[in-house]
């Protein structure tokens, strides 16, 4: 049999030749593994004096071995803040637990620069369990620190951008609401806009404005959606309602005009619609009464809180969304406001809010009970109460809410004031 120079041919011999380079790579000495490890090693006495340090850490810090071994303590390599943390937290915890891992510190280099590191230390004990030495592993955290710095910078920029967006949204929101409501002789009026999120512009809107012949128009509505698109529809709806009311103040005609405009402007693949309630206010007689004719296009019914304490929703069910159909159906009703009566209009952000306790929707019945407890009331008191109610829901309010209240004040000599 041919031994080919002493080597037996075959599968085993070929594998041995192939594995030889890998075996050579694995024949590192223990000392070499310690000195040139991809992390720093140092050993200190219990008082912190450096007894041993590997080449990797020396190269990172720019020291010679004789500069540290027997001459410095581990705490001498730390910055002022790191030394304070080491004495008050790191060292006491190490004594109690025998190990502390993953602590972020900064080491001072020979040239004065700082090296961010992650440190893990363990206490070595003798056969009797007595501590004799502290072994510390040091990992270079420069890349991690750079990543964290960049992450912080990006987060701060994101926060600044969000603040700019919130200021822009707040400014835009203000332009969609009247700066002041018209002063109607013989009426007390109050309104509020509760913002669910400062990150997006809502689509709720309201207004009260004078018309000819001693009458006033009022409206309150809610555009489908949020953001810039909803804001554009809100702006269009507000100015269309005011212009249409000047042309023909009949509430049904006003909503029909708005429906026509929305159908014309938003056709095809991006339809836009809203719910609206429009009212025409006119004085009635010398007793301070007002007649209110309301037309509703898919909007929640208004609440009437009478001077005698009785409370009920006004009958306007069945009205269709404005802008959704070419010929939307509108529901109307006419009521008399007498001294002490208060009319409350609101958007569905109020009734669809989640309650803090059960998390259920607040709902129409709960709002009716709430109004019964308020009646009789004034416009300002009613709006303040609704504002406090919304605040009590906290994060349960996930949609903006607009509220508009109108009250005929009682005579000054009324004993119930």
Account of the protein in words:
- By secondary structure, this protein is of the alpha+beta class.
- Helices cover 35% and strands 26% of the residues.
- The chain is built from ten helices and 15 strands.
- The protein has helices spanning 11-25, 30-35, 55-61, 65-68, 80-97, 142-175, 227-247, 251-265, 364-374, 379-393; strands at residues 40-44, 50-53, 99-108, 114-125, 131-140, 188-194, 204-211, 215-223, 274-284, 289-297, 303-305, 311-313, 331-337, 342-346, 401-407.
- The strands form three sheets. The protein has a five-stranded antiparallel β-sheet, with helices on both faces. Strands 6-15-14-11-12 form a five-stranded antiparallel β-sheet, with helices on one face. A five-stranded antiparallel β-sheet has the order 7-8-9-10-13.
- It is elongated and about 105 Å long.
- Residues 1-8 have low confidence and may be disordered.
